[in-house]
Amino acid sequence: QNPKTSATVKQLVADGNARELQKYFGSRMEFGTAGLRAAMGAGISHMNDLTIIQTTQGFCRYLEKNFSDLKKRGVVIGFDARAHLSSGGSSKRFARLAANTFISQGVPVYLFSDITPTPFVPYTVTHLKLCAGIMITASHNPKQDNGYKVYWENGAQIISPHDKGISQAIEENQEPWPQAWDDKLIDSSLLLHDPYATVNKEYFKDIQKQCFHRNINKETNLKFVHTSVHGVGHKFVQLAFKAFDLSPPFAVPEQKDPDPEFPTVKYPNPEEGKGVLTLSFALAEKDGAKIILANDPDADRLAVAEKQESGEWKVFSGNELGALLGWWIFTCWKNNNRDTCAIKDVYMLSSTVSSKILRAIALKEGFHFEETLTGFKWMGNRAKQLMDQGKAVLFAFEEAIGYMCCPAVLDKDGVSAAVITAEMASFLATRNLSLSQQLKAVYDEYGFHITKASYFICHDPKVIQQLFDNLRNFDGKNTYPKSCGRFKVSGIRDLTTGYDSSQPDQKAVLPTSKSSQMITFTFANGGVATMRTSGTEPKIKYYSELCAPPGNSDVEQLKKELDELVNALEKHFFQPEKNNLQRKTE
After folding, report:
1. CB atoms < 10 A from the CB of 473, how many?
2. Are residues 557 and 470 located together in one domain of the fold?
3. From 139, 350, 351, 355, active-site residue
4. Is the four-CA dihedral 47, 48, 54, 55 of positive or negative sign?
5. Taking CA atoms, which of 97, 407, 501, 550 is between 20 and 30 Å from 119?
6. CB 317: neighbour CB atoms within 10 A?
7. 286-336 pLDDT, tens per residue?
8. What pLDDT, in 10s, does the model give residues 342-382?
């Protein structure tokens, strides 16, 4: 019933444009553990009023089946600032339609009255003991996209088999229920609640448990620049600084207010390198700020840059910031826990494609480190399991600039990560140390971990399948490569098929998934490289790392060795020319 998408379809029918219609209606968006992510527009392959109604109807029925007290506890729904004029779609409208679906079935809905960072939704699920949470966001995707992200009652993103159960329920509930389109009905409903004020108060109270140096924060002369890259983060990072008694960061004026057009950047993704930070660098130079904090548009990720003695800016990789935050959070814990026995219940987590630096710190300091599959859904769920067993999960991170620094949010959170980074930098400044100098000190103590990651773009699923099939049948059927250029392969783990050459029974320990591609190669020189497909973008990603024991300080040699390994990986395993792959460009 949306006049804009309806008109688009009628026009295509009138024009007899079967090819475009096939694009819109050929296949339904697939609901996976990441929920939905697609462009806004007409048809069942896009995010629009109808597909949001259908998805929510399915999700509602699935929750009714799983929770006898759903009508007592309810769900939370948050949204970012995305909007798409040509199709009339927006995150706010989708959130209201989703709320209407639940309320029509007698389910209480805690709908945020204004835009909110993604981490506030899992926080609300846990804090108000709700059955589930929905966040309408496409995070850092291009401006035409939107998404539907789902959290379970434990406050973590859903994992299998919930995705399959929800997907099936969507298939079974495609016809809109009566009044499904009339979202104005919710405004007068007693089942509609606004958690905005409560959650804003409680969240900032909870993250203060991670504030350990209030006096230093009050006195510091260190200046920070913050950008929310046209997303939701500005107000919330300002409030976080206030909660830690830090002076507010300078906000990049052109980027601080939400704008669904993202006019100043090509991609609204701080992971994409210095291009996204151009305006931040300019403001920092003008105001004499040493450190830049950049959130992605839904404020669940954080990028950090620091001005070096040379005048150059260093943008930390996700692995480097993970090393710094891991060191800092453990140091703060140690200073506040003199009981040496307590360390046996301390855990840190990272995903399997992230740096193993936390493993090195854990080995030396005596706490536990675990790795999970890629994605915070795995780390959030594992953290909850451990916390339920009485363990303390201090920190979890993934190389894609995602950090969980505070146990109140079982997902990545760019707001708490920003203010904790600011406190760490302020503390180090009292010791005349920069973040870069401290990072070197961490590597000196625990061993250098040099990483390099990138991706190729490929829009043809058949080519991607063929590329991975070739790796599994490299020298004849069912044989993996024995070498990559001059680098000898010493181990293979394939989490698509479940094969792991290092295990006695050759079966992988981590869960496997046939629906996504992921192979990890271990090399005789101590290098590790993983190739995998992305769940939300047309990319084949790779991650590589070279770990050296403490004491090996020839960093340049290590970097050179890793560069050569990556070049060999691209040339022999990706074969970009043969497979017509598009390289990542700035």
Report:
1. 12
2. yes
3. 139
4. positive
5. 97
6. 18
7. 999 999 999 999 999 999 999 999 999 999 999 999 999 999 999 999 999
8. 999 999 999 999 999 999 999 999 999 999 999 999 999 99
Same domain? 502 vs 552: yes
How many whole angstroms separate alpha carbon 53 and alpha carbon 452? 42
Of the candidates 462, 559, 467, the residue with the CA atom closest to the CA atom of residue 519: 467
Give the amino acid at 397. F
Does the structure show a pLDDT above 50 at 586?
Answer: no
Backbone torsion region of residue 576, taken as left when φ is above 0, otherwise alpha when ψ lies between -120 and 50, otherwise beta: alpha
Pairing assessment for the beta strands 75-79 and 392-398 based on DSSP bridges: unpaired
Q: Is residue 318 a contact partner of residue 402, using CB atoms and an 8 Å limit?
A: yes
CB 154 within 8 A of CB 410: yes
Task: Tell me the CA distances in angstroms from 322 to 182, 417, 422, 460, one per residue in order.
Answer: 46, 10, 14, 33
User: Cβ–Cβ contacts within 10 Å for residue 563, how many?
Assistant: 14
Which residue range(s) make up the domain with 386?
319-446
Would you state the pLDDT for residue 554?
82
**Helix, coil or strand: residue 568:** helix
Q: Can 436 be counted among the known catalytic residues?
A: no
Q: For residue 535, what pLDDT is reported?
A: 75
In terms of Cβ atoms closer than 10 Å to its own Cβ (0-12, 13-18, 19+), residue 91 is: buried
Q: H or E stretch including 526?
A: none
Q: pLDDT digits over 437-470, tens only?
A: 999 999 999 999 999 999 999 999 899 999 999 9
Q: How far is CA 158 from CA 206, 215, 219, 374, in A?
A: 24, 40, 43, 14
Is the pTM higher than 0.90? Answer: yes
Which of 311, 334, 367 is the endpoint of a domain?
A: 311
Distances (CA, A) of 564 to 396, 448, 450, 527, 560: 30, 17, 13, 11, 6
Domain shared by 458 and 438, yes or no: no
